[in-house]
Design goal:
This protein is an alpha/beta fold. The chain contains ten helices and 21 strands. It has a domain at 1-58 and 97-133 and 195-266 and 357-414: FAD/NAD(P)-binding domain (3-Layer(bba) Sandwich). The chain is 32% helix and 26% strand. The strands form four sheets. Strands 4, 6, 7, 8, 15, 16, 17, 18 and 19 form a nine-stranded mixed beta sheet that branches. Strands 10-2-1-14-21-20 form a six-stranded mixed beta sheet, sandwiched between helices. A three-stranded antiparallel beta sheet has the order 3-9-5. Helix 1 (13-24) runs parallel beside helix 7, helix 1 (13-24) packs parallel to helix 10 (382-398) and helix 4 packs across helix 10. The longest helix is centred in the N-terminal third of the chain and has 29 residues, at 100-128. The radius of gyration is 21 Å and the shape is globular. The protein starts with a strand and ends in a 16-residue tail after the last helix.
Length: 414
């Protein structure tokens, strides 16, 4: 290793895209991860390229639901009571993000990033020869009452202001898109621009395989414990006590990025959205597009490898054991929403989504060194925003002018 190479820390989909864009630009890249290429959080997500999902996670009045979150361990958003004291500083920032001026700023910044994401993903998919792994069937939000539908209308109006196309449907129209729905649903909303990949793990590995064809990307299975700024670059330290020098380091370690940034003087309020799902065998139900259940906080995604039922948010950190009762609760609801669903033989999974209180990722330079770039904190939008982040990282590392202002994503904004 030498000052001729760039280190990318973290081989999830964001790190894969950062390495790909740098390699395409002629840079030699070493991609580090403690397990493998796309073997952790990015391997089990809902497979969505959710370019229309621009609303910040926090909504006005949401903090009034805190007692409910504490009482219901199986709800759409839950907090283990024992974790609440540690979470309080993050929740305070989360509450502040719901103020009108902060909410609108986050919405505008998210929309700008999504515009880059859609453009970059479609171009990268074409360059990498992975178009066959892309499904463009749209998504269907489903509501069990007129009140539930009405509660979602302000969000749809905000999306309309930012140019997102959708159609509100009655259930006869919805049944033409997705047959076999429960008669309990009364309204639906269809988003034609929603896209999914056929399997997130296989898709991300295919992008990495394309990066390897440049001849400028190497994977190294090592655990990074620290980053040390230097005069001409930065060194990465390994858990075996060794270290290596690079001309630049990019931190894409997802939920594990917080400690690396803190060592460099950047106190980023990163938390973990622990997401759960169950992947059923192929043939469990003929799902035609991604189905979204807003009131229940989960989705059903048709994959080439099965049917994935999952989502929801548990703010519980990195150390608590998984609560798979959450995935089973979503599966029980899925059986009610899709009568005839074959729910046997599923594989349960839990992943750590790196989440920031204003719902925006960190994309920018560290305080300590111009040779260290951060790219993490995408929450449940890591796959969606990975190509945009890869392109922006390339611009930052190579000193190019990015296509959008990066001020809203600054590591120093907190």
């Amino acid at each position: 290793m030498s000052y001729n190479e760039i280190a990318v820390v973290g081989a999830g989909v964001v790190g894969i895209c950062a390495a790909t864009y740098l390699a395409e630009s002629g840079q030699r890249v070493v991609l580090f991860d403690r397990t493998g290429v796309c073997e952790e959080t990015s391997s089990g997500n809902a497979a969505a390229l959710a370019f229309s999902d621009v609303l910040p996670l926090v909504q006005k009045g949401m903090m009034r639901k805190l007692p409910q979150w504490l009482k219901d361990p199986l709800g759409p958003l839950s907090i283990p009571p024992a974790y609440l004291p540690k979470l309080m500083p993050w929740l305070w920032r989360f509450w502040r993000a719901s103020a009108d001026e902060h909410y609108e700023a986050s919405l505008s910044a998210q929309t700008a990033l999504m515009g880059v994401a859609e453009r970059e993903w479609m171009a990268l998919i074409n360059r990498s020869g992975t178009r066959a792994m892309l499904n463009e069937h749209g998504s269907l939000d489903l509501y069990e009452s007129q009140a539930e539908f009405a509660a979602e209308l302000p969000g749809w109006e905000a999306k309309a202001r930012h140019g997102i196309e959708f159609r509100h449907l009655d259930m006869e129209e919805a049944a033409e898109i997705q047959p076999g729905l429960s008669p309990s649903f009364v309204r639906a909303t269809f988003v034609p621009g929603w896209k999914n990949v056929s399997d997130p793990k296989l898709f991300s590995k295919a992008i990495y395989a394309y990066a390897e064809t440049t001849g400028r990307v190497l994977f190294d299975r090592k655990t990074i414990t620290g980053i040390v700024p230097g005069v001409q670059g930065a060194a990465v330290r390994f858990d075996d006590g060794g270290s290596e020098d690079f001309k630049a380091v990019v931190v894409c370690a997802g939920a594990w990025s917080k400690n690396l940034a803190a060592q460099l003087g950047d106190r980023v309020p990163l938390e973990t959205e622990r997401g759960y799902n169950t992947t059923l065998p192929p043939g469990a139900f003929d799902v035609r597009c991604q189905l979204i259940f807003p009131a229940h906080g989960f989705v059903i995604t048709p994959l080439s490898t099965g049917l994935r039922v999952g989502g929801a948010v548990e703010l519980g950190g990195l150390k608590r054991p998984p609560n798979y009762a959450r995935s089973r609760a979503m599966l029980e609801k899925a059986k009610r929403f899709l009568p005839g669903l074959r729910a046997e033989g599923g594989r349960e999974w839990m992943g750590y989504r790196p989440s920031l209180p204003d719902s925006l990722p960190v994309i920018g330079k560290s305080t300590a060194s111009p040779y260290v770039t951060y790219a993490f904190g995408h929450g449940h939008l890591g796959l969606t925003q990975a190509a945009a982040t890869g392109a922006l990282v390339r611009d930052l590392v190579l000193g190019r002018t990015p296509p959008i202002s990066l001020d809203p994503y600054s590591p120093q904004r907190f």
